[in-house]
Amino acid sequence: MSSYNKVTPQIADQLKAVVGEKRFFEGEAIKPEYSHDEMPIYGKYFPEVVCEAETTEEISEIVKICAANKIPVVPRGAGTGLVGGCVPLNGGVIISTRRMDKILGYDMDNLVVHVQCGVLLQDLAADALDHGLMYPPDPGEKTSTLGGNVSTNAGGMKAVKYGVTRDYVLAMTVVLPSGEIMKLGKTVCKTSSGYSLLHLMIGSEGTLGIITEMTLKLIPKPIVDVSLILPFPDIASCISAVPKIKLANLDPQSIEFMDADIVKSSAAFTGNSVFPQEVNGEPVGASILVTFVGNSEDELDLKMEKLAEVAEETGAFDVLVVDTPTLKKDVWAARSSFLTAIEADTKLLDEMDVVVPVNRIAEFLLFTRELGDKHDIYMRNFGHAGDGNLHIYCCSNDLEEEEFLRRVKIIMDASYAKCVEFEGQVSGEHAIGHAKKYYLKESVGDTAFNLMQEIKKVFDPDMILNPGKVCTYICE
Amino acid sequence: MLNILVCVKQVPDVDLVKMDPETGNLVREGVPTLTNPLDLNALEAAVQMKEKYGGELTVITMGPPMAESTLRECLAVGATKAAIVTGRPFGGADTLSTSYSIVKAADMLGKFDLIFCGKESVDGATGQMGSQLAERFDASQITGCLLIEEVNEEEGYIIAQREMETGAETVKATLPCLLTVEKQNYRGRIPNLKGKLASKKAAIETFTENNIDGLDLNKIGEPGSGTIVPRIYPPDLPEPGQIIDEGSTEKSVAKLMDMLAEKGAI
């Protein structure tokens, strides 16, 4: 434990000298959004100062000032996190990376792109396509920054085929808690060269260093694609199709699942009921959305026919084909709107982002639903069925916040214990932040948790960088 | 058993079409095409009528051979027959010659009780086709149809709600009737795999300038058009606004006040 100093007028002047007056904010000039991310239920904490950095060197200078004065410093991208990862629990300085939004260049021979950390995922995705390439990681939050994606090892909808953000980071520039600038990794695809500090930095949530620039791997963009919706009577039959699709060697780009409630919410929110709520008068309990990519229409036709066999075998009501530009836009816009739809009609909200083995998905969802029913908390589910990553939302519009938190804690405690029992992970892609660190400890055990804390101390002995996150506690 | 016709159009994805700043022409090369989204609402209304009352549902389009993909899209969600009017002489047509060509081809397919159109196309956006077709088919017309309440084939009428500026009105019209459809109650459905695969193999009837009975070649394509488009140009846009960001609300407001004072506005 260590104690921190406040930002004095003298220190403020030093910071102001680094970024200039226009990119320096303090006191009431700090916008309220800096006190929370997209999960305000985890509390609001204001920084003393916000600096909008534009270069690695500026971040280095800011961190040096904070290190010299023992002031906490928290990096923040777009603030779209869901576990309070960018929230300044101890005040201090927030470094906003929003202005570091330059795509620095493509290396077409090595299929890589160099970016600053504040580039938005949606901007790189579109720009790569214009170059005939694809950046495969595809988290639902398209307005998140790439720095945030790397810091949380974000996954997304294409992970079942292509893997997660970690698999696409070849090199990075990082500012250490001392302010020193370090480069990690090289523009090569293999390494057997000592401990991978690069991979330690990925997913470290700004607790070991501030990632400022990255070299990311790209692939040629697929030529054709098709998505298919398979509506099922219930979750169990829906999920039973997932391993069968994989075993049929269909190599889907994504297999997303959604339950009936989230489909209803999304339809009400977007005003467009894209996913079927009933088929021939039978209510749909859950659906999966499968995407195939390929080199020709014929290749996709073969995959679709094989998928139809799986659908019949597992009791799907039908197989719907999403293959026109208009339908694709509508369906994927609806899929991407799920969280926004929940946020729009829910007053109090908490979430889980667990990963369980695919063959335990249905069992886990039923377990959490029963818990929700028992404690009168409305549960909504969707997620990445192909890799067992579930987004489970606890919602209420009626309860007082204190009572909501009490009931949700009971549900969370039991659910994360069940996740441990199923040999799952606390988080698949939203990370730990400060909201899930106690569950992380329960999940990984004391020895692993202590090792994480020791690693943190090696990088950041004064605990100034994003304190209170992942494996450290709030320093008073 | 109703005989239903739906008129559809293949359009470029207008979100992706750009204008050549030199020539003023629309650059359509490499831009994906799609079925005019508003036509899919008309198709959905037609499919629901076919499901409710039975009968045949024919889709017809005019365009290059690639527009067949639009017809197959319609076949996948419930159309039973499809026809395309295609050929160079039909090129450069405005709504006058297009409606003429469509009706002459449709006459070869029989008499229709109901004819459905989208409200307008997202590329041309004239909204004229529905009314022109109604005249040429000698059909009554219900524009801006919100909801079809009843079709009585025996007594030869249809009752439907149509959108008004101030609400909706319910009207009764005689058959044959042409309807242009609003999207609220008739969102297009997603095809199932069975329909999709069948649509890929379905036969499509092709009409050209050579096999349409009684076609007057002076009334089709560019020569048959009553309008010409001398030039296409982007509208003059007003000057973009200026964002004042002085770092804080107080400073920004002070700057705004200075600027307004400078211009003599306050």
Quickly list its features.
heterodimer, A: 476 residues, alpha+beta, Uridine Diphospho-n-acetylenolpyruvylglucosamine Reductase, domain 2, Uridine Diphospho-n-acetylenolpyruvylglucosamine Reductase, domain 3, Alpha-Beta Plaits, 4 domains, seven-stranded antiparallel sheet, 15 helices, 21% strand, B: 266 residues, alpha/beta, Rossmann fold, nine-stranded mixed sheet, two-stranded antiparallel sheet, 13 strands, 27% helix
Protein described:
Chain A has 476 residues and is α+β, with helices and mostly antiparallel strands. Chain A has 4 domains: 9-98 and 455-459, Uridine Diphospho-n-acetylenolpyruvylglucosamine Reductase, domain 2 (2-Layer Sandwich), CATH 3.30.43.10; 103-220, Uridine Diphospho-n-acetylenolpyruvylglucosamine Reductase, domain 3; 224-339, Alpha-Beta Plaits, CATH 3.30.70; 346-442, Alpha-Beta Plaits (2-Layer Sandwich). In chain A, 36% of the residues lie in helices and 21% in strands. Chain A has 15 helices and 20 strands. Chain A has helices spanning 9-19, 56-69, 121-130, 146-152, 159-162, 197-201, 235-247, 260-270, 297-314, 325-336, 338-344, 361-374, 401-421, 437-444, 446-459, and strands spanning 24-26, 49-52, 73-76, 93-96, 103-107, 112-116, 133-134, 169-175, 181-185, 210-217, 219-220, 224-232, 254-259, 278-279, 282-283, 286-294, 320-322, 348-352, 378-384, 389-396. In chain A, the strands form 5 sheets. A 7-stranded antiparallel sheet of chain A has the order 17-12-16-13-19-20-18, with helices on both faces. In chain A, strand 14 (278-279) and strand 15 (282-283) form a beta hairpin. The relative contact order of chain A is 0.13. Chain B is α/β, with parallel strands linked by helices and 266 residues long. Chain B has 2 domains: 2-219, 3-Layer(aba) Sandwich (Rossmann fold), CATH 3.40.50.620; 236-266. In chain B, 27% of the residues lie in helices and 27% in strands. Chain B is built from 6 helices and 13 strands. In chain B, helix 3 crosses helix 4 (129-137). The longest helix of chain B has 17 residues, at 37-53. Chain B is globular. The mean pLDDT of chain B is 92.
